[in-house]
Amino acid sequence: MSRRRIIAGNWKMNMTPSQAAELCATLKDLVKNDNVDVVYCVPAIDIVPVAEAVKGTNVKVGAENFYIEDKGAYTGEISAPMLKDAGVEYVIIGHSERREYFKEDDAFLNAKVKKAFEAGLTPILCCGESLELREMDAYLDWIRLQIKSDLVGITADQVKTLVIAYEPIWAIGTGKTASADQAQEVCKAIRDCIAEMYDAPTAEAVRIQYGGSMNAGNAAELLSKPDIDGGLIGGAALKPDFGQIVNA
User: What is d(CA 170, CA 227) in angstroms, rounded to the nearest whole number?
Assistant: First the structure.
């Protein structure tokens, strides 16, 4: 497989700046791997200390959120150019927690994808279904709709460089994990959707992660599947176990 693996940690709302620096020091030797892209997606307040802590290592810095305007009277928000200037290379867009708690819809997420590319950031675009949608056997249609909506106006060349993260909502922070076959089914469906929207070379180039309680114990099996190119890791990203996932 020609696609380069990518393991990204989504720290969510965890780690003070001093704790973040300590975690980077703890993980430094554990995540060394020249064959895998390693990304720490961290809270905004941790970006500067983490960017400093990972200098000279193989780790890239990602953000968890940003606003679609470059500057202005948007108290409390952070712009994509600010992230870029601080050393950020990746940004999570469309995580289910942003969709649910902060009511970010697909039109807004599409604007975020466009702004990320404009600023020179690589989107990690999330998609996934609820337990209800899975039990209704409507999950593939739902995920295809998310992908098609969020990539309106995005070029094939841009899509080749972004990352798509499939995270079944019922497996985020619950300890439940989609089986390797279930995860492969959806990741292949996402790749097929990209092929329909663009072309086969674009679909072959895009990297697709699985997220949703991936851990040191199940990472190798999940990553053995042909359409799973990495993981977006939640809780396990805050532990030394993250190194085992990177090297799985």
Answer: 21
Catalytic residue among 64, 95, 97, 129, which? 95
Q: Do residues 126 and 89 lie in contact, with contact meaning Cβ atoms separated by under 8 Å?
A: no
Question: Active site includes 95?
Answer: yes
Rounded CA separation 12/44 (Å): 10
CA distance to 25, 74, 81, 196, 200, per residue, from 191 (Å): 36, 36, 30, 9, 9
CA 52 from centroid of its chain's CA atoms: 22
What's the pLDDT score for residue 219? 96
Catalytic entry in 64, 97, 104, 167: 167
Cα 178–chain centre separation: 17
The answer on pLDDT for 159 being more than 70 is yes
**Which DSSP string do the residues of the chain spell out, in sequence order?**
--SPEEEEEE--S---HHHHHHHHHHHTTTT--TTEEEEEEE-GGGHHHHHHHTTTSSEEEEES--BSSSSSS-TT--BHHHHHHTT--EEEE--HHHHHHS---HHHHHHHHHHHHHHTPEEEEEE---HHHHHTT-HHHHHHHHHHHHTTT--HHHHHH-EEEE--GGGSSSS----HHHHHHHHHHHHHHHHHHS-HHHHHHSEEEEESS--TTTHHHHHTSTT--EEEESGGGGSTHHHHHHT-
Tell me the pLDDT tens digit for each residue of 105-133.
999 999 999 999 999 999 999 999 999 99
pLDDT 10s digits, 2-37? 899 999 999 999 999 999 999 999 999 999 999 999
